[in-house]
User: Fold RCG52582 from Rattus norvegicus.
Amino acid sequence: MTSHRGKNVCRGQLSSDILQKQRMMRRLVTCLSFHE
Assistant:
């Protein structure tokens, strides 16, 4: 039970990490388009 919970927490952190990366990529894209 405890190990399963740990896995869920790890998965949540991973998904949040991906979301942050996507946000950073979007910011870069918007900045590039703005410069152009």
Remarks:
- The mean pLDDT is 75.
- Residues 1 and 7 are 10 Å apart (CA to CA).
- DSSP finds one helix and no strands in the chain.
